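Lecture 7, part B: from sequences to assemblies.

Below are the input chains for today's worked example.
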Amino acid sequence: MLKNRRALITGSTSGIGLAIARALAAEGAEVIINGLGDQGQIATLCEELGATYNGANLLDTGAIAAMMDAVGPVDILVNNAGMQHVAPVEEFPAEKWDAILALNLSAAFHTTRAAVPGMKAKGWGRIINTASAHSQVASPFKSAYVAAKHGLAGFTKTIALELATHGITVNCISPGYVWTPLVENQIPDTMAARGMTREQVMNDILLAKQPTKQFITPEDVAAMAVFLCSDAARGITGANYAIDGGWTAE
Ligand code: NAD
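Predicted structure of the full complex, as structure tokens:
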């Protein structure tokens, strides 16, 4: 379905981004992966996916510009890289706030503005932003993440309107809790911030949000990304698709 399409997926060395990269490659897209991690494992991934890799650190706007130059025109851009930090606002480190806003929000602006001219020239494009249930609702102790994801949802709607007549769609996918390193790594800080055990955080904080009482899988999110890249989804733009086990229905 995606033969002759080039796709750049940021933050695709792990978790949701990797599942999206795998799913787009399975549909025949030429995939470019990005993210941090062990170079040997990344080389193996590239081999598995027939992909190329650009290791730009997306906290660095110069590195993003260099990546977009090196990669060249893409048909599909998935802005997925993200990070989390959990702390009460008065203890929230200012440098963590800056980093979360830079990675989860501003990086999507920098990649999008570089990718749009090529998409416009072709009259076809798909921009998918991995937002979060936290693009629609809040949780305490996640001020930077919630602010960034709400911002990403607003950015998505704005760019969808700007590009609506160019054959380019721009959408968010908003997962609830997906079992990836990002979620696993926030458990210790949440235990500290709330004075809870690991089991209490898993059941009373994370899964308490999701009426299904199940974590979402990275593959669930990837399937939605594939659909949004299809021609059948040409009329879907400016949307924010929840895949959250019912979390934001409450
Ligand atoms: P993850 O930690 O498994 O993956 C994050 C990816 O981003 C990795 O490839 C990592 O190397 C990359 N990355 C981190 N810092 C980077 C940097 N400075 N430059 C370039 N790449 C960098 O996390 P995940 O859960 O797969 O998260 C992916 C996206 O999904 C994030 O935007 C996250 O906010 C969002 N999300 C996750 C969940 C969840 O429950 N896991 C829920 C909703 C939204």
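Note for the exam: The chain is about 50% helix and 15% strand. Keep this in mind when comparing with the next example.
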